[in-house]
Each structure stands twice: as structure tokens, then as C-alpha cells.
Write a structure and sequence with these properties.
alpha/beta, eleven-stranded mixed sheet, four-stranded mixed sheet, binds adenosine-5'-triphosphate, binds 1-O-phosphono-beta-D-fructofuranose, Tagatose/fructose_Pkinase, Tagatose-6-phosphate kinase, 1-phosphofructokinase activity, kinase
Length: about 300
């Protein structure tokens, strides 16, 4: 079974404004409320692909109930810890460019945090746990570390998609996959990256530090897949880009879901890119038919 863990879910409030003027009254052209948070996005795309999974993490208040109901309506299995404080609302402002304003997240009490750790007590060696997104500050800096220890004890594989110290420290525990985008990769090493060669150099460092496989996504430029001594590039198909929010999460869903079904790394890479692009070309996350339509358009070449 695949579990997604979202420590800091959100309602993504997507707001489109024709001609945004700072400091003025702006009226929305269109708005949309979607359940968000990286692990929840992964679960929704896995569900589109027909891959059984369970979403866990923390939800709270009216915003948390909104997300739980949405997942229920999509028949996504979930088992969240309900916390006293409200789940955050993240603003995604589309006004020519996409600007994101993400909340810090609710206060999580010690008993609530312990309850989440308990939910992973039933893991087995056949499971894959996808740990995605930021952690609310009240959890402390080492919460991902705690969850990784639980995965390791049960010999479950884990994937981690977060930033900074939590990601760096996770590498030594041999995650099945890490998927920074090329900006996050540069930030992780405190460098600027100017070429594909440099992306490969720093991507390889993630393998050396312990990751089993590395995907570096590059938005419209596709992605690189670095595994063992091999490096592959996949193109991103061309299309009308509507929304990049969740493209990276969709890529993780496509990759991990397909790998769990087929064990074929390159098919997993192809499905990952198709899923990411199908989301980029949609208002909400990717739907199955769209992913299947794009899949044959993804060309993979070994570098
Ligand atoms: N403009 C685009 N055109 C085509 N495909 C895209 C585009 N943007 C994203 N994708 C697809 O989605 C994948 C992941 O995108 P990206 O590199 O933006 O990830 P990300 O930065 O983690 O995304 P996010 O944080 O917004 O969820 C890309 O490798 C590509 O397959
Ligand atoms: O603040 P975090 O946890 O880093 O990211 C949260 C978030 O921006 O990531 C998802 C897209 O990847 C959105 O659904 C959500 O709003």
C-alpha cells in the first residue's frame, strides 16, 4: 500500500485577477477552492491512476472538514489526525505570473503529533510512504526524522519531497526517491545552476548522499532521471499551461504509482512526466485520460 503523509495540508484558494494593482481594490475574474498540500495532491493523482493509497496527516477546523469531504467524494481513503486549530488556506494568485502565499499552518499539540506517529505503526516492508511538503513550525525540526525512523523500523520504503535541512538529513536514510526541481536543487547546495551538466552534477550528489533514485524536474523543459550510473532526459510535451501548482506532486504520483505496479524505472519516469504535464495543462490536478493521452508523447533519451 502507498501512504501519503501531508503534515501541512491547505485549501488552495486560486484567484485570477485580470490586471492586478497592488494597494488598490482588485476584483476577481475567477476563483477556485481546491484541497491542497503536497501529499494530498499525490493521493488524488494516484487515485486517478487507479492506484490504491491512503492519505494521512493533520486536518483541523472548517478547512480541514472541507478537505476531508472532498477526499471522501473522490473515494480516496484517508485517516487524518484531527487537530484543534484550522488547516491553513494558501493563496495562489494568477495575474500574468503565478504568485503563491502559503500559510504557516496550525499549531499541533504533542498528543496530536504522537497520534500521527501511531498511525504508521502498522507499516510493513511492502509499503511505500510518501512524505511531502512543509511541516507546521510547532512540530519542531525533527518530526520528519521521527517518521522516517518508523518507516525504517518496519522496512517500508519512503519518498521525501521537502526542502532544506529535513531533506538533507533524510538522504542518509536512503529514500526511494527525491524530486527537487532545478531551483530547489541549487538552493539545497547553495549554488546557482546554469546548465544541464550542472544539474546532473548536483543531482548525482543526492545519489551519493543516499537517495536510491533522483528526479530533477524542470517545468516546461521536462525532467532528468538519475539512477546508478545512468542519466536520462524526458521532454515535456507542449500544451496550453493553465496551472503549475501540483505539477511536481503529480510527477511523484505517476512515478511511484507506476513503479509500484510495474517495477519498470523508465516507464515510471515516463508516467511521472506525463502526470506532471497533464496537471500543468489543467485547472485542477491531472485526470487519468489526459495522462494516458500524453504518455506516448514523452520521449526518453539516455545522456
Ligand atoms: N510549462 C510546462 N509545460 C509542460 N509540462 C510542464 C510544465 N510545467 C510543469 N510541467 C511538467 O510537470 C513536471 C514537474 O514540474 P515542475 O518542475 O514545475 O515541478 P515543481 O516545481 O515541483 O512543481 P510544483 O511545486 O509547482 O508542484 C515537469 O517535469 C513537466 O513534466
Ligand atoms: O507550503 P508547502 O507545504 O511547501 O507547499 C504547499 C503547496 O504549495 O504545495 C502544493 C503544490 O505542490 C499546494 O497544493 C500547496 O498549497
Amino acid at each position: 500500500m502507498i501512504y501519503t503523509v501531508t503534515l501541512n495540508p491547505s485549501i488552495d484558494y486560486i484567484v485570477e485577477v485580470e490586471d492586478f494593482r497592488l494597494g488598490d481594490l482588485n476584483r476577481m475574474k475567477r476563483d477556485l477552492k481546491l484541497p491542497g498540500g503536497k501529499g494530498i495532491n499525490v493521493s488524488r493523482v494516484l487515485n486517478q491512476l487507479g492506484i490504491q493509497n491512503k492519505a494521512i496527516g493533520f486536518l483541523g477546523g472548517f478547512t480541514g472538514r472541507y478537505i476531508e469531504e472532498w477526499l471522501h467524494e473522490e473515494s480516496i481513503s484517508s485517516d487524518f489526525v484531527f487537530v484543534a486549530d484550522d488547516t491553513r488556506i494558501n493563496i495562489k494568485l494568477k495575474a500574468g505570473h503565478e504568485t503563491e502565499i502559503n500559510g504557516t499552518g496550525p499549531a499541533i499539540r504533542e498528543a496530536e503529533a504522537d497520534a500521527l506517529v501511531q498511525k504508521l505503526a502498522m507499516l510493513s516492508a511492502d509499503d511505500i510512504v510518501i512524505l511531502s511538503g512543509s511541516a507546521p513550525p510547532s512540530l519542531g525540526g525533527d518530526f520528519y526524522d521521527k517518521l522516517i525512523s518508523v518507516c525504517k523500523q518496519s522496512k517500508a520504503e519512503f519518498v521525501i519531497d521537502t526542502t532544506g535541512t529535513a531533506l538533507k538529513e533524510a538522504l542518509a536514510h536512503k529514500p526511494l526517491l527525491v524530486k527537487p526541481n532545478h531551483h530547489e536543487l541549487a538552493e539545497l547546495f547553495g549554488v546557482t545552476i546554469n546548465s544541464r551538466e550542472e544539474i546532473i552534477t548536483y543531482g548525482r550528489k543526492l545519489l551519493e548522499a543516499g537517495a536510491k533514485h533522483v528526479l530533477v524536474s524542470m517545468a516546461g523543459e521536462g525532467a532528468l532521471f538519475i539512477t546508478g550510473n545512468e542519466v536520462y532526459h524526458a521532454n515535456a510535451p507542449k500544451g496550453n499551461v493553465k496551472n503549475s501548482v501540483g505539477a511536481g506532486d503529480s510527477m511523484i504520483a505517476g512515478f511511484v504509482g507506476t513503479l509500484s505496479l510495474t517495477g519498470d524505472l523508465l516507464e515510471a519516469f515516463r508516467a511521472g512526466v506525463a502526470s506532471g504535464s497533464a496537471t500543468a495543462f489543467s485547472d485542477d490536478l491531472a485526470e487519468r485520460e489526459h495522462i494516458e493521452h500524453l504518455r506516448p508523447l514523452i520521449q526518453i533519451s539516455q545522456l
